[in-house]
């Protein structure tokens, strides 16, 4: 029986993945940082602060997971510039607490550690589709903390624990926080349509390009990786990417094409970052060859579903 402990279960990706893992008939324990835990029927939650080793030990001992999927993190690049201590503590110390606890109480547990394509940083400037062996050169505190956590996890894997590291590229969908670009733009359009915001859409850097994926496709990759019998994966690191990148300006244009309300686009200096990866795109050759995974959802469909989600949210008040 597969008993999966899923950290970050109440987050954007966690909710989608929780549903997917239950549909795949796994036993799933979603962990949330603080009480009260959500009460969705058929879902089981544990309250666990990953920054508190005692709290982590209690949950690992109670759940005795066969698999850990570690999603919980400070995942916003802009937030990481403003609050690096919180970012390092959560992303690195939180991960160390989990790995130490597994080593002590559940040494046979398989870990899927969710890192980020952001770890490649400066190397993206080569302008190529990056493979997993490309150099890692983080450009912000979030990316650096994820790379540090990867190194920490790798030490435990060298010592005999089992697991895999994934580097997902930008994943988007309904339910994502408006701290991220597509959700931010869609929310503003919905607010403008509802007459709740003046017809001015605030943006940051529109010249950057990103390799966008639907959150459902990313969760499909995680579910497939967890479904492989322990010890059978050929590699320790997998990119999760589409292999093509799209300008932020093009995503904005796509969103604007779905509205009839006239909207002025205005740069907000607050939304510009001290440094920003200009173009990010990754090769998915490895995961495609080994697991047959490739994204299945057209970006246009995902973008439209995000706008519909925000229209519903705003209509519901
Ligand atoms: N958030 C935001 N808001 N970004 C904007 C805006 C805006 O108003 N305008 C332009 N951008 C640009 C950013 O400067 C960046 O170049 C791009 O849009 C994407 O920004 P985010 O959606 O915040 O994502 P990210 O690329 O910084 O990081 C995301 O992807 C990583 C994987 O590649 C996050 O989801 C990370 O957690 C994830 O690891």
Note down, in words, how this protein is organized.
There is one protein chain. The protein has 317 residues and is an alpha/beta fold. The chain has two domains: 3-172 and 213-240, Rossmann fold (3-Layer(aba) Sandwich); 181-210 and 245-280 and 297-315, UDP-galactose 4-epimerase, domain 1, CATH 3.90.25.10. The protein contains ten helices and 13 strands. It has helices at residues 12-23, 53-63, 77-82, 84-105, 141-158, 181-193, 215-227, 248-256, 285-291, 299-315; strands at 3-7, 27-32, 44-47, 67-70, 110-114, 162-168, 171-172, 200-203, 209-210, 213-214, 237-240, 246-247, 264-267. It has a seven-stranded parallel beta sheet, sandwiched between helices. The chain has a two-stranded parallel ribbon with strand order 7-10. The protein has a two-stranded parallel sheet with strand order 8-13. Helix 5 links the parallel strand 5 and strand 6. Helix 6 (181-193) packs parallel to helix 8 (248-256). The N and C termini lie far apart (42 Å). The protein binds guanosine-5'-diphosphate-alpha-D-mannose.
List the bound ligands.
guanosine-5'-diphosphate-alpha-D-mannose
Please tally the β strands and state the result. 13
CATH class of the largest domain: Alpha Beta
The strands making up the biggest β-sheet line up spatially as: 3-2-1-4-5-6-11
The low-confidence parts are none
- Content of β-strand: 15-25%
* SS field, number of helical segments: 10
Please state the second-level CATH architecture of the largest domain: 3-Layer(aba) Sandwich
Corresponding CATH superfamily of the largest domain: NAD(P)-binding Rossmann-like Domain
């Amino acid at each position: 029986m597969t008993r999966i402990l899923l950290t970050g279960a109440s987050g954007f990706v966690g909710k989608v993945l929780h549903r997917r893992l239950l549909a795949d008939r796994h036993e799933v324990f979603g962990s949330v940082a603080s009480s009260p835990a959500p009460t969705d029927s058929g879902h089981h939650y544990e309250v666990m602060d990953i920054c508190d080793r005692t709290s982590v030990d209690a949950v690992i001992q109670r759940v005795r997971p066969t698999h850990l999927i570690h999603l919980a993190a400070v995942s916003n690049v802009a937030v990481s510039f403003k609050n690096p201590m919180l970012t390092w503590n959560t992303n690195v110390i939180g991960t160390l607490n989990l790995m130490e606890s597994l080593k002590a109480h559940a040494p046979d547990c398989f870990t899927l550690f969710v890192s980020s394509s952001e770890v490649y940083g400066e190397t993206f400037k080569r302008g190529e589709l990056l493979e997993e062996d490309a150099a890692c050169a983080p450009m912000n505190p979030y990316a650096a903390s994820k790379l540090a956590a990867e190194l920490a996890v790798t030490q435990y894997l060298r010592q005999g624990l089992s697991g895999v590291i994934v580097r997902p590229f930008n994943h988007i969908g309904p339910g994502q926080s408006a701290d991220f670009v597509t959700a931010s733009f869609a929310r503003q359009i919905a607010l403008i349509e509802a007459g709740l915001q003046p017809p001015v859409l605030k943006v940051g850097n529109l010249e950057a390009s990103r390799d966008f994926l639907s959150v459902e496709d990313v969760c499909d990759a995680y579910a497939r990786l967890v479904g492989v019998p322990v010890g059978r994966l050929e590699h320790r690191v997998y990119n999760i990417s589409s292999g093509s990148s799209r300008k932020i300006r093009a995503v904005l244009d796509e969103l604007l094409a779905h509205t009839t309300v006239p909207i002025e686009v205005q740069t907000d200096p607050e939304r510009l970052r001290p440094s920003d990866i200009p173009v990010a795109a990754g090769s998915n050759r490895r995961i495609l060859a080994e697991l047959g995974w490739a994204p299945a959802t057209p970006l246009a469909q995902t973008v439209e579903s995000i706008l519909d989600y925000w229209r519903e949210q705003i209509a519901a008040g």
